[in-house]
Design a protein that fits this description.
- The chain is mainly α.
- The chain contains 31 helices and seven strands.
- Strand 4 and strand 5 form a beta hairpin.
- The two termini are about 50 Å apart.
Amino acid sequence: MKKFLYVMIAGVLFSCQTQSENKEMETGNPFYQEWDTPYGVPPFDQIKDEHYMPAFEKGMEENLAEIDNIVNNPESPTFANTLEELERTGKLLTKVRSVFFNLTGSNTNPRLQELQRELSPMLSAHYDKITLNEALFKRVEEVYQDRDNLELSNEQLKLLEDTRKSFVRSGALLNEEQKAQITEINSKLSELTTAFGQNLLAETNGFELILDETDLDGLSEGIIAAASETATQKMENAITEVEQLKYEGKYVFTPHRSSMYPFLTESNRRDLREKLYKSYIQRGDNDNETDNKEIAAQIAKLRSERAQLMGYETHAHFVLEERMLKTPAEVYDLLMQLWKPALERAKAEVADMQAVADNEGNDFQIAGWDWWQYSEKVRKAKYDLDEAALKPYLTLDNVLNGVFETTNKLWGLTYTERFDINVYHPDARVWEVKDKDGSHLGVFIGDYFTRSNKRGGAWMSSFKGQSNLDGRERPIVVNVCNFPAPVGDDPALLSFENVVTLFHEFGHAMHGIMTNVTYGSMAGTSGPRDFTEFPAQILEHWASEPEILKSFATHYQTNEVIPDELIDKLLKASKFNQGFANTEYLAASLLDMDWHTIKADEEVKDADAFEAASLAKIGLIDEIAPRYRSTYFAHIFSGGYSSGYYSYVHSAVLDSDGFEAFKEAGDVFDPELASKLRTHVYEKGSTEEAMELYKQFRGRQPEIDALLRVRGLDGSID
């Protein structure tokens, strides 16, 4: 059932075609065929935009027929003929959905966006037909009521409980009028969340800072070359001569972080830093056709109305019932424990930067667009650490080798890059992953560089899930990031922040690849949001371990291994700028909670005013914007993190406490701990309660002390 609910949130496309058109498409539609590609990787070179509509239509038709077969089974409901048969439904729909949604996020085009808008409310209605099917729920309920007599395994019992709960939380116990209201709300939400995401992509691509050579003061050769190459690419893609001339001999920067952050760090043109920074924080808030203010308010309102129909005080109460932290009060309490020390640290960081600016003879107060440049100056002064000195050691290939080496030492995994497997974009790369005994474990796809048809951020997804229900099915997992692309003949050079992001997303990939459960709906990252970040975040800790750094960080020009002195500087500076990092994150998390604790009868008429009041209430300083303002907060308004953005810090409590176990053991690759981490976390999916899984690994409940130490929020630094 979880796979049904996920798609209701995500939305997909659906369009009607004539019967003759459908027959023509069926003969050559790759979604209707068994894929004879290596490990069942989708044949991307054969899949065309026109294949999606009929495949979705047929997939939904087959899915409902499968549900009818379960409902109309004359035999009494059993776990096998009801729960396990439910697990087997929707294979074609899952097949097309997995490809479509991965590509609309990472390699979209106007046709796919149009199809997504068409289909999202239709697919929402499709899944409502299943989750609100009274006869189907009745069969599940009969099995549930008889559960004590069925001799179910722990995994089977958890599946039964989760499935029954999914039906109830979708509205199965409501009357017909209420069910109709739920369906209408779900349809509207699917339209609005799709619009929010597409508007954000348009806003991010809609601003360009086009510069002349005289505007480049302070920028390093690599940053200048990248901006020149961006201009050249835009000139080559321009349709008219006028557009081409706009980019000729110019340098282009955009609100994509991979372009913006280097500019904000290096440019001596404060006016241009302000212009680019504001283009980023104003996305979706420009009173134009892609404005997201009203959409965000409508989404929050509809969610609160749906929660009230379901008998919950707010949307946050509804969501958190299924999380490790069960109530909004618990979430606010965790966030506010960190807010005060983080804000105090951020104010001290502003004072440090202001002192540098004053010493330079500047007559201005530090503002948001100054933070990257002046924090870097403070870091150089305090720790003698220059980010630019690190990058030559951190090529993308080096870092990939590092994360492969880490997981090899932990679990014996090996990786073989495959060049015989077709991919959806030239940037994407494919590896076969083998277990320590040499058996096939899964396929990993990495898609790492920024491009205009890819949404922002970094994420893990899958083209095929894992299941042992009808034989051993191994997963196909993808990591998508937005790192700077190579410039000229040089390799892609990453910042250390990029390195941590790569390790983080690879942790999610490991959760998807090492999972080993019977039922696909319980595999991999299917658990509570505030737990599923834990397997990703704990892997981040190995990125800065000297043993690992020295195994992969070699200078791309000289092959010199990263010197101990540079590693030492990196580690000493690890707590630097944590006031900013924690404050911007916590402000966004609190904003998420404020949006989703509004009551059904509350009307938010002005999203900007609502946001301003939320941030003023906690005393956010002017020099810092929340990591995501409401109008580009895709995690909560077009993703699956509503009332859940706090999950990163809750998981940080787990990952800091969990990694400390390795430190206490005196070996960050301690075999016993590594085995427990794999067995009780990475392999188990949602087959057991999340806290029980953590306790089986760690031997006790998590404690917050380690997190405070890791982030320098325990008062141990000045």
